[in-house]
Design a protein that fits this description.
The complex is a heterodimer of chains A (243) and B (228). Chain A has 243 residues and is an alpha+beta fold. Chain A has helices at residues 3-6, 56-63, 102-109, 114-117, 125-134, 223-235, and strands spanning 9-13, 18-23, 27-33, 40-46, 49-53, 73-75, 81-88, 147-149, 153-155, 161-163, 172-178, 182-187, 204-210. The chains are: A alpha+beta (243), B alpha+beta (228).
Chain lengths: 243, 228
């Protein structure tokens, strides 16, 4: 893709901070781990009907996977595809560990209040998510299992989890090509299993691009994703959709 | 698969204050008080029991898969596992388990996900989410608490075996459960238990044959053991 000519907008979310916005179908949101130590916790909602939301269990079981990478779709609880992952330099994103919360952040990193630290204060993943959700009339009841982009969590045979810190490199990126008009809510605080003793979450750069023709073909290879896409397109059929 | 932590219960079913059968394809809702012990019995084997827990005093607090996974750094449930809420509180502790492994990743079946997983024309087949929504509409306790679809997070699947491979794959394999296996948990706070006894007919994990479960509650461990 000719990056310079197709870029619609770009924005940096500093480590620990949060963001939300509507991403339209037909566009691709690129997330970049600028410094190689980002965690982008993300929840997705149908912007027309926010009761429809990202569903971890359906996303995993529809595609027989424990992790997300290029070729996977992110499913809603209504059997529709919010977005396909059309590019990924990391190979593995977590979706089962949830968000860091205030108590964990304090226990692991100590306290850094706004009064003394201004915008370098320590923020938690959950609190950032709740602030952004609140802007859209959403709250605690809408916090479901999220995606943690850039964090690789592996499981051994008995199910014990490990955070793979060496999987992150500066400049890593993941492309989300949207099939639905989607409210994206993002919190860039540390992953709950990040073992780092120092509060230093990395920035997440957001870039919006038009989705190039054919970008999602590879992702629709799985029979489940073909049906998921057919089901998604029914939602937009009245607007001259594809079905 | 290695199964460990198999622990049998000493509680006597004769002393239970609740002893009910829930047929396949039906929901079951009950208030379980702090200190009480709650048992689910897989009567015929390899049945999936989709289960949620809520705090009746403050319903935004509910069982959380991600908190239960992260806080114990473990993907599977068995004896000793604590079931955490989204507020970081321990709702229940698993105190006995003769099955050895239960799932937190597979969630509930629904008309919409069945379409994606099996075929577009499976929409009319009964599903766990239909049972949950039926309970939300009809069960007096759910009605009183004002629960809606918004309150349905990812659930536990008791007796279901969904192993994760080191390469990051997810498998739905034949269950490790068998007729009469059970899991038992102690309530660490008052909880509303909401169950859908799974009606899935498209998945080999229950041999395409959903079966009944038995549900027992003892007021306390002390009152569950016959003293002679």
């Amino acid at each position: 893709m000719d990056h310079a000519h197709s870029l619609l907008w770009e924005e940096d979310v500093p480590g620990g901070c949060h963001w939300s916005g509507i991403v339209r179908r037909g566009t691709t949101l690129r997330l970049e781990d600028v410094e190689g130590r980002a965690n982008a916790a993300v929840l997705l909602f149908n912007s027309e009907e926010k009761l429809e939301r990202y569903n971890m269990a359906d996303t995993l079981k529809c595609q027989h996977t424990f992790q997300l990478t290029k070729g996977h779709a992110c499913y809603s609880d209504m059997g529709r595809i919010f977005c396909f992952i059309t590019a990924d330099t990391t190979g593995w994103h977590d979706t089962v560990c949830g968000l860091s919360e205030a108590e964990l952040i304090e226990k692991q990193y100590g306290v850094a209040r706004y009064q003394e630290h201004r915008n370098q204060m320590y923020r938690s993943g959950l609190d950032g998510m709740l602030i952004e959700l609140g802007k859209w009339g959403l709250g605690k009841r809408d916090v479901v299992s999220n995606i943690n982009f850039f964090s690789k969590i592996t499981a051994n045979a008995s199910g014990e989890l490990s955070f793979q810190a060496d999987n992150r490199r500066p400049g890593d990126s993941v492309d989300l090509s949207f099939e639905m008009d989607t409210l994206v809510v993002l919190s860039a605080a540390p992953h709950p299993l990040d073992p780092s003793k120092v509060y230093r979450p990395g920035a997440v750069r957001l870039a919006l691009l038009p989705t190039p023709a054919g970008a999602t073909i590879e992702c629709a290879g799985l029979a489940e994703n073909v049906r998921g896409l057919q089901h998604t397109q029914r939602l937009y059929a009245c607007k001259g959709g594809v079905e | 698969m290695s199964v460990h932590n198999l622990i049998e219960s000493r509680l006597d079913p004769e002393l239970a204050v609740v002893d009910e059968i829930c047929p396949a394809g039906e929901p079951w809702v009950k208030l379980v008080r702090k200190g009480a012990t709650f048992r689910i019995v897989d009567l015929e084997g390899n049945q999936a029991v989709d289960t949620l827990f809520f705090n009746p005093a403050h319903t935004p607090e509910r069982y959380s898969a991600t908190d239960t996974i992260s806080r114990q750094r473990s993907l599977y449930l068995t004896s000793g596992t604590k079931l955490y809420s989204n507020f970081g509180n321990v709702m229940l502790t698993i105190v006995a388990d003769t099955c050895g492994r239960h799932d937190m990743l597979g969630g509930a079946c629904a008309s919409e996900s069945n379409r994606v997983r099996y075929a577009l024309d499976t929409y009319a087949m009964h599903s766990c989410r239909d049972s949950f929504l039926h309970a939300l509409a009809h069960d007096p306790l759910c009605e009183q608490l004002g629960l809606t679809k918004r309150d349905l997070p990812s659930n536990i699947n008791f007796f279901m075996n969904v192993p994760v491979t080191e390469a990051g794959g997810l498998e739905f394999v034949d269950g490790v459960s068998a007729p009469g296996k059970y899991v038992e948990m102690r309530a660490e706070m008052d909880v509303v238990v909401m169950i859908s006894n799974c009606p899935q007919l498209n998945n080999p994990c229950n041999a395409y044959n959903p079966t009944p479960i038995r549900l027992l509650v003892w007021e306390s461990a002390e009152k569950g053991i016959a003293h002679v």
